[in-house]
Amino acid sequence: MHDISGLFPAHENLGAISVERAVAELRAGRPVVLAEATGRLLVYPAEQLDKTSAETLERIGGARLILSMQRLERLGVARDAPGLIALPRIDLDRIAALIMDEEARIDAPVVHPIPAEEAALDLLRLAQLLPAAILIKLDAPVAGVNEVAGCDIRAFRARKITSLRLIGRAPVPLEGATHSEIVVFRGGEGLRDQAAVIVGTPDLAGPVHVRLHSACLTGDLFGSLKCDCGDQLRHTAKFMAENGGGVILYLDQEGRGNGLSNKIRAYGLQAQGHDTYDADEILGFGLDQRRFGYAARMLDLLGVTRVRLMTNNPKKIEALRAAGLDVSDQRIQGRPTPQNIHYLATKRDRAGHLLDVDVPTAED
Ligand SMILES: Nc1nc2c(ncn2[C@@H]2O[C@H](COP(=O)(O)OP(=O)(O)OP(=O)(O)O)[C@@H](O)[C@H]2O)c(=O)[nH]1
Ligand SMILES: [Zn+2]
Predict the structure, then answer these.
(1) What is the CA(271)–ligand 2 centre distance, in A?
(2) Residue (of 138, 158, 144) closest to 35 by Cα position
(3) From residue 101, how far is each of 78, 106, 122, 133 by CA, in Å?
(4) Going by fewer Cβ within 10 Å, which terminus of the chain is more open, N or C?
(5) Are 233 and 274 in contact (CB under 8 A)?
(6) Candidates 290, 297, 308, 329; catalytic one
(7) Would you tell me which CATH number, out of the four given (3.30.470.20, 3.40.50.880, 3.40.50.300, 3.90.870.10), belongs to the domain 14-157?
(8) What is the pLDDT of residues 129-155, one digit of tens each?
(9) Which of 229, 235, 236, 320 most suits a substitution to test ligand 1, by most atoms within 8 Å of the C-beta?
(10) CA of 243: how far to CAs of 2, 202, 203, 306, 336, in Å?
(11) CA of 218 to the centre of ligand 2 (A)
């Protein structure tokens, strides 16, 4: 027998790997078992339910639906924590309404979750699925299911920060910033690698212009007029090229961390008149899912300690300060368009973004 134990990563990574496996299973529409000292829980994503999975879950019995605090609030139940609803029957239409319908109201008692059940909800968020799962307490073994420990889910984000590694770097000339280098890191809590763009040759010992830019496929790549992302990205690179260089971290946080599918679902709700935050809340998400701890770690790996942060988002400033960086900030204006002006004003009014926007009134 060959001994291949040396091919497996160090012991401290195993927990994070088990979470990533669980995330892959859930995204593929497969169940996972969440193990805690209190017992074992079968977890199935509510958005993946179909006739066969519903029948199977109903046969096992004891199914409950866990929903986030934001979703419960939308369903007319004010709460400060997630909650569970018993599902004596797995009715596909009712569950679809409970997880996504704007008009649905709750018709059953809501129970407070235990930590294992809250960890299940967090797993769904990491998988960038809707934060809604069918849970069943298991009193008998189940075969062929991936198992994940609640403690590993809770430790996942911090572990991903410490395991972040620089994989490669190469010069890539950019429009408006021809002297640029792209550096790629593996890790972070998103589902892909993270990139940093080093524009010019910034003095890493002094305060460095830095932008934390969350991925926005629609804005950055397709030039969507609904947001200011693409414009800010290109403007920042050009500004840095003309002002002593800088570092742009391009973070795998599409849709404020909710993922592309949920962002497009939210855009669908926005097309019906909801603002950017209401649309996310209807889907069960909070104001902003993003955490910036791993961005601080990327800066650390690049040797940056003093930052002139190009942002209007106070949460980014706070997050880097909390991670020990010396941060001063600099406003960055995205181009207002008739299509994004309300989005910009909403970020200012509801999330405290430091934006200077003039929304035309009906009289203008
Ligand atoms: N969920 C959701 N995400 C959106 C929407 N519009 C844009 N986004 C995402 O919001 C994020 C924008 O992030 P950033 O460019 O870092 O900007 P910001 O948080 O507004 O802060 P600064 O630009 O630094 O002031 C990207 O991940 C976009 O994909 C939306 O309507 N709903
Ligand atoms: Zn955008």
Answers:
(1) 16
(2) 138
(3) 17, 11, 21, 16
(4) N
(5) no
(6) 290
(7) 3.90.870.10
(8) 999 999 999 998 899 999 999 999 999
(9) 229
(10) 57, 9, 11, 16, 23
(11) 6
The residue type found at 134 is: I
The helix (H) or strand (E) run that includes residue 279 is: helix 276-282
Mean of the pLDDT values across residues 215-233? 93
Amino acid at position 173, single letter = P
- Which residues of the chain are in CATH 3.90.870.10 domains? 14-157
Nearest residue CA, atom 1 of ligand 1?
A: 255
288, 291, 300, 348: the active-site residue: 288
Which fold does the domain 164-253+290-351 belong to in CATH?
Rossmann fold (3.40.50)
User: 0.90 cut: is pTM over it?
Assistant: yes
Residues of the chain with CATH 3.40.50.10990: 164-253+290-351
